[in-house]
Amino acid sequence: xxxxxxxxxxxxxxxxxxxxxxxxxxxxxxxxxxxxxxxxxxxxxxxxxxxxxxxxxxxxxxxxxxxxxxxxxxxxxxxxxxxxxxxxxxxxxxxxxxxxxxxxxxxxxxxxxxxxx
Length: 117
Hints:
Layout: E1 4-7, E2 10-13, E3 59-60, H1 62-69, H2 73-80, E4 87-90, E5 93-97, H3 98-109
């Protein structure tokens, strides 16, 4: 017959003693706990950012184009009036195509006579 343990409301079976290798707090070992239910899952890991960083802009503002070329804003505004400069107007803003600007710079360095602005 199993040992009984006295309680206020009656008797119940005595708890089985924990093995001698139990921790200092005398709690059950980790293997004693059942696995978590299937619906409980840790949050999914965050996706790492794309390796190339943020996508590049298609067009520069006047300030960004001036910084990219290493010239002043007024020089960019003067260049915007040239027919071969890759500028476009969107609303009230002047934008300079990134690819067009790179091609324009290559063409300018390609052997045409130098012009001062």
